[in-house]
Structures are given as C-alpha cells and as structure tokens.
Amino acid sequence: MNFLRENLLTILIFLPVAAVGLMLLHESFWGKNDETQKKLALGFTLLNFVLSLVLIAGFKSDTTELQFVQNVPWIKSLGINYHVGVDGISVWLVILTTILFPIAILGSWNSIHKRMREFLFFMLLLESGVIGVFVSFDLFLFYVFWEVMLIPMYFLIGVWGGERRIYAAVKFVLYTMVGSLLMLAGIIALYSIVGQNTFDMEVITTAVRSGQLQNLDVNTQRWLFGAFALAFFIKVPLFPFHTWLPDAHVEAPTAGSVILAGVLLKMGTYGLIRFNLSMFPAASHHYAWIIEILAVIGIIYGALVAMVQPDLKKLIAYSSVSHLGFVVLGIFAFTDQGIQGAVYQMLNHGVSTGALFLLVGVIYDRRHTRLISEFGGLATPMPVYAAFFLWVTFSSIGLPLLNGFVGEFLTLLGTFTSVSIPHPYLYGTFATTGIIWSACYMLWMYQRVFMGENSNPKNQTLTDLSLREKFVLTPLLALTLFMGVYPMYFLRRTEASAKEVQQTVVNAPTEGIASVSPTFKK
C-alpha cells in the first residue's frame, strides 16, 4: 500500500502509456482486432479511474501541503525535477479526467469506423498528458506535459473530425502554440529572476509569498503575468481569444469534444489559479478589473451567440465560452467563495457539457446531422433520450439541487462580496444576466428539438437509447445530482488550498496598483 501511495501519481500518468504498449504487443502476437483493442483501452482507463479514487480516500482536507508527492532529480544541471503532487485544487481535476476518458471511449464505441487502433492510442496519450499537467509542480515538467497534450488532440480533430477538420485542427494548434511560446518565455524569465537554479513551483511560490524575490517587483510581475495569462486565456478560452473553440468542437469527433470541453479547457483556468494568482499576486490585482470585464463580456456574448446557432454542437460550444466566463469571474474576485466556486464550476462544466456532447453524438450517429431545424418532436420516438437531455439541460442552466446551481451561486456570491476589485456589484449584476440567457437558449433549443409534432419522416423511426448509451450517460447524470445535493463533499477538500491562494493575493504588496482605477480598494 505504501508503494501505491508513494507512486500513485506516476502510475496514473503512465498507465495509459503502458496500455498503448500492451495493445501494440497484443497486435504483434495475435493480429489486429478492433474489438479487443477497444476493450483493452476501456479496461485500462477504468483501472486508472479506480486507482484515482485512492487520491480521495487518502486525501487530507485540513492541510494546504502537497500530497502524494514524488520529487526526484531529472536534469540536475538545470535544477529540473520530476516533481508531482496534488492539493485541493488539482485533486478533483485529476478525478474528473479519469472519469471522462473511459466514458468518452465507451461513448464512441460504434462511432469510429477507421483507424480505431490509432484513435485509441491518441486518446490514451492524451489522458497521460492531461493528468501530467494537473499534477506537475516543476515549471519545466508542466510545460512538457502541456505540449504533450497538444499533439494527440491535433490528430483526433484532424483525422477523425468533420469536413473542415484540417482547418479546425490547424487553428487549434496555432492558437495554442502562440500561447505556449509566451508561457515558455515566461518560464525562462522566471527561472532567471529566481536565481536559485530551480524550476520548482513550491520553491518559487514560497519565495514570492515571503517577499524574498527582490527582482520580482510589480512591473516585472506584470510582464510575467501577461506571458502566462495569455497562454491560459487562449486555452480557457476567454473572450476575445475564443474563436478557435467553436470550430474545434464542431469538427472534433464526439470523444474529442467531450475531452476538450471536459478537461482541456480547465487547464487554462487551473493555470490562472496555480501560476498567475499564486506567483504574481500584485500583477493579478493590477489586471483584475480588466479580466473581470472580459469575463462578463464572455458570459453575455457566449450566451447571445449560442442563442442564434442553427447547429446543436456549435450552440453547446458557445455555451462553454459563457460558462467558463463564470470561472474566470470567480477566480479574479479574490474571495474564498469566488475561488471555490470557480473550481466547482470547472467540475460542473466538465460533467454537464461532457454529457451534452455525448447526447448530441447519440443523435448525430442516427441522423448524421446536427441542425436544429432537422428535428422536432423527438420526445415521441425517443422518450428516454428526451428525459436524459432534459436532465442535463436543467443541470447546465443551474437548476437548484443540481450541480450548476452551486458553482454559479458561489461564483456570484464571491463576486458581489469582493473588496479587491472596483464596483464588484456591477460585475456581479451583469454576470447574473448570463444565467437568464443560458435558460433562454437551452430551453428554446430543447423545445425545438423535442417538443411539438414529429413531422419529419426521418425522425419517426429513430430508436431510443441503447443499453450501452444509458450506461455511458447515467454516471454523469448521477454526478450532477450528487454535486447539487451534497457539494460539501467536494468543497471540504478545496477549501484550504483555495483560501491559501486567496490570502496570497489579498496580502500581496500593491504599490503602484491604485493608479489603475481611482476606486481601487483593498
């Protein structure tokens, strides 16, 4: 048991890679068999999920220290270590990742008709990269996993995507690479400023909090903040860096959309908390009001654009822009409730939007179209499907007793009560309208797709959800209820780490910050 605890994160990272090796070995001895390959990939991702539950069983919620730590030298001459661990902010994101990957693979069981082996390989490598990002506490190691994640996603979109898949894949890579290069420049600059021959995030963050880094003044923080923040804003994506997302979602296969929405976008918001707030607290104060404005614009803009979309998948893609605006809003409110609400909303979005993309994939497999105008009255031939879709719709718009309500409530509460940004009630009020718009576009979409007369002959013979499809969707629906009814199960484990980040920002020196806004107050 000690061996498992000491090496658990390494196992979680590299078990999917081991699965790739085993699948290649199986093929070399017994020949190519898609069904066997799918079962092996599903089995290993399920095993990874079961192992990840050990994180929750052994996690101590009353401490801010890293847990399940493994820290060994990697490139000694440069001070680069293989340093992994989890805290209250990252532990649930790891769990979310290990939940969604087996669900995505099982959800695409009959949807991929070419190069199944390669598809599974890229899915497994993607899982390794994403988990690596969430558990890395060495800047260089973090950057390596950040780049590793990019390659499988590019191929998933470019090979198994829709008609404009090459355009969407290249656009995704170009946007992400620009952000990655800026972050790399920031990492190298920070390494030079620290001057301790280390990329260790704990060492750097501790030095920042104790005021030991004399070279890291407010102006320097602003430049470094910008380099990291732009990389994360693109990944979120925050308005106006969002234009790659609808294309990537629409062209990606169902599994790619589930993972992209469920966990990849969270890498951006996670990075803002882990890097920008923790390492550059003074600069976070300096830019907070601008970022809050962009978050509010994203909330309203994403909702309004979603309302006029003729394509189901594109509607959900723009809804992600709106929902993740709430996450950014909560982060830069600099309150306990805001940061905890942001983390909770990351989990909510992963569960609810992942389920929505799976549901859209179900109807696309049957009709090979996602146009809302092609449907109507689907509740008649597909009553179970309609019920599942309605449940997730309620979750997405924040119905009380479901998960979305808790995250949005905490985020808005944290924003309204913030004393670290000017006029917080304005940000909170405008952001609240996003909930209304969300209800408008989701319920109107549901009415057009499921209600009324089923007049299209192509829809009259549609089959309802199969046993496999019910099995895929049921865990996500159960999670939406559990997270809505018993949020403290999750919030207890995020509270200490969220409070530590909040205190780092609130207690940061703010010389030269007040000039940003005459109404700034700490």
Task: State Rg.
Answer: 22 Å
Beta fraction of the residues? under 5%
Principal-axes shape call:
globular
Helix percentage range: over 70%
- On the 0 to 100 scale, the average pLDDT is 88
Output the structural class: mainly alpha
- Termini, distance in Å? 47 Å
Largest sheet: 2 strands, antiparallel
The sequence of SSEs as H and E is: HHEEHHHHHHHHHHHHHHHHHH
Question: Helix segment count?
Answer: 20
Report on the architecture of this protein.
Strand 1 and strand 2 (80-86) form a beta hairpin. This protein has a two-stranded antiparallel sheet. It is globular, with a radius of gyration of 22 Å. It contains 20 helices and two strands. With 522 residues, the chain is mainly alpha-helical. The chain has one domain.
